[in-house]
């Protein structure tokens, strides 16, 4: 057993003054048992907690640390920006560079607005879609998570799913009525819903590859089918690429699957670990945003110099080193092959979903294609696996309903360590 006495003491203090002791629900280990670890620092592939324990990090800040922690070019860029004052609330050259870079890398984005989180990005994109179409209703997929905006806490994934509140108290009935939900990967359901609500749907929003009910890829033809339905009915198609943007390829999931949405929401990687989000898309839609158009959206810290510096360093590195995606995918394939062998060896009812460097080991023998199949997972067994991995120095997302994210800092030796830890853990929990 690791000594986690400092983390335990910090959690006791935290609970006195922070709801549940954490500033974002999934950080609490509520779904897997035990107390959360308090992290002091991280470098490359490793996290270090307050008690000095080392862990291979498979969360990577829920995605953004794709190059590994404290990556020198990112660190240097932030230092340089800091020395010139962390905020002005006025336009900067870095914001122009960032917008040009995003538009050059994400296929469907012609204009982009920076915000401060993924939640802000999706809330803003929905407002723009409503303002642009003059319609009120939106369609979202069960189990997809788009941040904590009111409209999205209906059949939501991630922590909302983990803690059993996919429909949060505090969301007004009117808002809930404007959000229509369908199962992921079910084109028929979308067609029927659109027919039933003809002329009333402003937007259809989805994670093109879901990360927030665990990793769930789109079925063949699904994204193309959604594109057709939306084009036919004047619905704004929004890809929420907060997780997949710059992770699954330089141009995100839309490049990988070759389907262009009307609007895209981004976050995570574009901030290089600092709090950033963005939404962008077709020029005609984005030009309806204030001050170019009447739809209001603003932010004191939007386009913050330090956040832009970190994000630019990260994105430039990814643009200049396209080979990084093959390397990440190679590491993912290697680890997944190792896990597949273990599933056979221990005759486990498990299935693995995987796209690029995002993957989830589901403790169910069902093929996970949507919310209903994800929920057939044995979350108690997952909790045991999580604890067994943690005790062997591998830090997984503390919920079955999350994707794991690899970083480029995970080399063959570290990948071997992950596979070995998993083998021992599965042996332990299936005894
Ligand atoms: N959209 C998706 C797909 C996400 O995964 C997340 C967060 N995990 C969000 C939106 C919300 O982003 P944030 O937590 O930065 O508000």
Automatic annotation (TrEMBL):
Supply the enzyme class, top level: isomerase
Documented EC number(s): 5.4.3.8
The cofactors it requires, by name, are: pyridoxal 5'-phosphate
GO MF, any single term: glutamate-1-semialdehyde 2,1-aminomutase activity
In the record, N6-(pyridoxal phosphate)lysine modifications are located at: 268
Question: In which compartments does the protein localize?
Answer: Cytoplasm
Catalytic activity entry = (S)-4-amino-5-oxopentanoate = 5-aminolevulinate
Q: In which pathway does it act?
A: Porphyrin-containing compound metabolism; protoporphyrin-IX biosynthesis; 5-aminolevulinate from L-glutamyl-tRNA(Glu): step 2/2
Q: Which UniProt keywords apply?
A: Cytoplasm, Isomerase, Porphyrin biosynthesis, Pyridoxal phosphate
Xref: NCBIfam families? hemL, PRK00062.1
Q: Which family does it belong to?
A: Belongs to the class-III pyridoxal-phosphate-dependent aminotransferase family. HemL subfamily.
Oligomeric and partner information: Homodimer.
The protein's name: Glutamate-1-semialdehyde 2,1-aminomutase
* Source taxonomy: Bacteria, Pseudomonadati, Bacteroidota, Cytophagia, Cytophagales
Q: Which gene specifies this protein's sequence?
A: hemL
């Amino acid at each position: 057993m690791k000594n986690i006495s400092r983390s335990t003491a910090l959690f006791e203090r935290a609970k006195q003054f922070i709801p549940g002791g954490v500033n974002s629900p999934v950080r609490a280990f509520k779904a897997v048992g035990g107390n959360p670890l308090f992290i002091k620092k991280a470098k490359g592939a490793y996290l270090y907690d307050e008690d000095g324990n080392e862990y291979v990090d498979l969360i990577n800040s829920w995605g953004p640390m794709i190059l590994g922690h404290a990556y020198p070019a990112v660190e240097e860029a932030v230092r340089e920006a800091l020395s010139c004052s962390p905020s002005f609330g006025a336009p900067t050259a870095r914001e122009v560079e960032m917008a040009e870079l995003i538009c050059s890398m994400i296929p469907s984005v012609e204009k982009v607005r920076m915000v401060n989180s993924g939640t802000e990005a999706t809330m803003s994109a929905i407002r723009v879609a409503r303002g642009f179409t003059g319609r009120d209703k939106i369609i979202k997929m069960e189990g997809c998570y788009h941040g904590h905006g009111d409209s999205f806490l209906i059949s939501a994934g991630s922590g909302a799913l983990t803690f059993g509140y996919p429909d949060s108290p505090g969301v007004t009935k009117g808002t809930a009525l404007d959000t229509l939900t369908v199962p992921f990967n079910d084109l028929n359901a979308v067609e029927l819903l659109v027919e039933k609500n003809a002329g009333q749907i402003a937007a259809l929003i989805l994670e093109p590859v879901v990360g927030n009910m665990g990793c769930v890829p789109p079925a063949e033809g699904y994204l193309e089918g959604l594109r057709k339905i939306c084009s036919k009915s004047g619905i704004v198609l929004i890809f929420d690429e907060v997780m997949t943007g710059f992770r699954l390829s330089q141009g995100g999931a839309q490049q990988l699957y070759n389907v262009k949405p009307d609007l895209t929401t981004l976050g995570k990687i574009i901030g290089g670990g600092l709090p950033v989000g963005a939404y962008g898309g077709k020029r005609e839609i984005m030009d309806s945003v204030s001050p170019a158009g009447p739809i209001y959206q603003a932010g004191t810290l939007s386009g913050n110099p330090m956040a832009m510096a970190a994000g630019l360093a990260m994105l430039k590195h990814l643009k200049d080193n396209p080979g990084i995606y093959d390397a990440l995918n190679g590491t993912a394939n290697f680890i997944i092959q190792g896990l597949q062998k273990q599933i056979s060896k221990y005759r486990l009812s498990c299935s693995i979903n995987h796209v690029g460097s995002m993957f989830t080991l589901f403790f169910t023998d069902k093929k996970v294609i949507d919310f209903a199949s994800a929920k057939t997972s044995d979350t108690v067994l997952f909790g045991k696996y999580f604890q067994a991995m943690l005790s062997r120095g591998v830090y997984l997302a503390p919920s079955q309903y999350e994707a794991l994210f690899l970083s480029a800092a995970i080399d063959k030796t570290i990948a071997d360590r992950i596979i070995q830890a998993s083998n021992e853990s599965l042996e332990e929990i299936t005894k």
